[in-house]
Amino acid sequence: MFDTLGERLNKALDGVRGSGNLTEDQVKKVTREIRLALLEADVNYGVVKEFVSNVRERATGAEVSKALSPGQQVVKIVDEELANLMGGTAHKLSFASRPPTVVMLAGLNGHGKTTAAGKLALFARKLGKNPYLVACDTYRPAAIEQLQQIGRELSVPVYTEGTGPKPEEIAERGIREARDGGYDFVIVDTAGRQVVDMEMMEEIRRVRSTSRPHSVLLVLDVVTGQNAVEVAEAFQEYADFDGMVLTKLDGDARGGVALSVVSVTGRPIKFASEGEKMGEFDYFYPDRMAGRILGMGDVLTLIEKAEQQMDRTEAEAQGKKLMSGKFTFEDFLQQMQMIKKMGPLSGLLGMIPGLGKQLKDVEIDDRQLGRVEAMITSMTVKERRNPKLLQNPSRARRIARGSGATQQDVQKLVKQFKEMQKMMTQMGKGGGMPRIPGLSGRR
Amino acid sequence: MARSWRSFFRRNADEEQENGPTVASEPEPSTEDLEVGNGHLSDDLTEGVPKAEEVQAERKEPAPADAWEVEETEPGDAEETLPESSAVEEARDADTVAELQESGGWFGRLRQGLSRSRASFVGQLNAAVAEFRDVEDEEFWERVEEILISSDVGVPTTAKLVGELEQEALERNITSGAELRELMIEHATSMLEGPVELDVSHEPTVILMVGVNGTGKTTTIGKLSRFLPGTKMFAAGDTFRAAAIEQLQQWGERTGTPVVARERGADAAAVAHEAVHSARREGTDVLLIDTAGRLHTKVNLMAELDKVQRVVQRQLPGAPHEVLMTVDATTGQNGLRQAQMFKEVAGLTGIILTKLDGTAKGGIALAIANEVGVPIKLISVGEKVEDLHPFDAREFSEALFGDL
To answer: How high is the ipTM of this complex?
Structure first.
C-alpha cells in the first residue's frame, strides 16, 4: 500500500548522484516525500510540519558523502533527527530507594493495559524483583478476571476487591497489602477511559494521588492516529505520566504515534510491547523505531533476534558447510527450524531494508515453510544426505505421499535445493553474491 | 434525522407480511411461530434437528420482547448496563433504550461527545471557510487538506476528495463558504454511502464479529444483541485472551442471552460449530459469534478465522450471513490494512466504528469506504448500550465538517 520512503526518495532524486552539496531544490523535493511518508505513518500533522522544516534546514548545504547517494544522505539525517526527538537511547527501569516501587498504568480503552501489566510484572521479576498486581478496573466486564488469570499464569499475586469499591481506595489498600507482604514491585492496573469523560479523568487523578506511584506509564496502541496528541496531552494533565508503553508492535503499523506523543509531551517511550505472549516486552529503542516509521526496516532488531536464537558456533559451522557445497537437506531442515524460532517469516523479512518493495505484493505464508518441512521429514536419512537419490521418481512419489504434497512439489523442492547449493558454492569460492532474479536492486 | 433501528434489520418476507414492514412493537413470537420455524428447519436441514416438542422442552428462556422495546430488565439490576461512567445512572432510569435514542438523537450525542475536539476542528474549518475567496486560493485548499488529514482521513483519500471538490467548485463557480461546505458534505457522504442494513432474515442468522485486539468486539456483541429482533445466542469464540469468555458470559447474563462456551484454549472453530448446532436446535433467531482479537499480519491467526468461517458454512450454507469488523475510531492509517486483510480472509460485510466518544474523529472510516470498499454499518458513540447506532453517512459527514 505504501511505498517505502527509501524508494520514494530514490525516485525523487533520480539522476542526482555523486558528490557536492545538496542544493535547496533537491532538499525541497526530498522533504516533500518525507512529509508524505510521515503523514502516512500517522505522525501528527503539526509535528510533521515542524519536523520537516528542521530537516530542511539541516540538509540544505550538507555535504554528500561518497558512500551514500544524496537520497540516502537525507534519509540518514532524517533518521538521526527522529532518533534524537524520540530520546536517542533506551530508558531503563528505575526503582524506588524505599520499596515497594509503584507503577501505575493508564490509557484509552482497548490499548492493552491489562496485558501490559502482566508483561511488566514478568519483566520486573526477570530483573530480580518480586512483583504484585492491583486490579483497579472496576468497569469493564471480566477485567479483574483477566488480570487474575494473567496473575495465575505468571504466579504473581493479584489484589482485588471486586467491582464495588472506588478504584482509588482499592489502589491504596492494595499497595499497603503489597508492602506488608514484602513485595517490592507493585503494578496498578486501571480502567480504560476516554479523555473527554471528565469524571473518569478526575478518577485517574485520584487513583494517582492515593497510590503515589514512582512511575506512571501511558499505554498506547501503536496504530493510534492523529488524535494521539490530544489523548497524550489530556493524560499528561490528569495522570502526569513520565513515560509510555507502546503496544501491539507486532502488527504492521508504522507507529508515527511514537514521534507525535514524544515531541508533544516531552515524555519518553519506555517500553515496547509486541505480541500476546507474556515474554514479548522490552525496553523501547528509539533508534530502531525511526527506521520503522520511515519504512526503512529494522536491521538492528533483526540482528539481535538472530543472535538470540542462533548458536554462534553452530551458525559458523553451518555457514562453512553452506559455502563448501556439502550442504544437505538435513542442514536445511535445521536452519529452517532456527528461522522459525525467530518468529513469523513475514515479520522477519519486513525488517530487512530494501525488501519492502519486493515483498509488497508477495504473500508470505509461514505454512509454506511447514510444507517444505513436511517433505524433508518424509525423506529417509540417506535421501536427506544425498539429494541426488531423489531424481528417482518412485522416491519422489513416496515422499509426496508421505507429506501430503504432490510429486511436482517434491521435484520443485529438489530443483530449488540444487540451485541453492550451486549458488552457495559459487559464493564460497569468492565469486560474490550472484544475482538472484527479482531481487537484484537497481544501482 | 437519525437512521432508525426499525429500518436497519433486513428480515425475511414472511415475518414482514405478518407484522407489517414498520414494526413498532412486535408481539412475542408465539408457539405457533416457533413450530413453523422449526418445521422449516427440519425440512431444509437434514441432520441433528430435534422435533418442535423437544425444542419447546429445551427452551429455557421466554422469547424477549422485540428489540426496540427492550426494557432494562430489572430496575434494581445494578449490572444492567456497563457502569463505565456515572452517566450510566441516567440511562438505567430511562424507560426504554429506543426512547432514549429517539429523544436525544444520536447526532446530538455525537456532537456533544465530540464537542471538545470539535470546537477546535469546526473552528478551524469555519475559519477556513470564512476566508474562502475563490477556488484558486491555494492556501484554502491546503487548509482543507490539513483538516482532513488531521482527522485520520489519510493522504490518498484526502487528495481524492480535495481534487473532486476543487474541480466541482470551479465548474459550478462556487463563491460562498456555505455552498462549499455543503459540497464537502455531499462528497464525503457519497463516498461513505453503502448498504447499511443488517441481514437477519435467516434461520438462524449467524453474525461473525472480527477485528484486531482491543477494538471492542465483545462489547459490541453485548450492545448489538439488545437491538436485534427475536431470540439471540452468543458463542464465546475468543478462547485465547484471558477472561474473554467470562466477559461475554457477563454480557449474556446482563442481556439474558444464552452463551455457548468451552474452556480457554479450546478450538474456536469447535465452539462455533457447537454454537450453530445449538442455535438450530433451539430455534434461535440470531447467533452472534465472538472471535479472538487478531492482528491482520498473523498468518496463523487469520487461517484460524478462515477455519471458523468454513466450519460455520459447512454446517449452515450461506452462513455467516454478516461478518462485521470493529475498528477503533482512534485508529490511524493502519486501519486500511486491517480492513483489507480482514476483507480478504473473512469477506467482511460491514465495519463497526467504535469509541467515537473520544477525541478521535474517525476519519479512517472515510478512507476504508473509499479505498477498501467495505460499508460502515454501525457506530458506537459511548459506553452505554444505547450508544450503538446504525450508521448514517450524511450525518457522519456533517459531524466531520461541523454544523451547517
So the answer is: 0.72
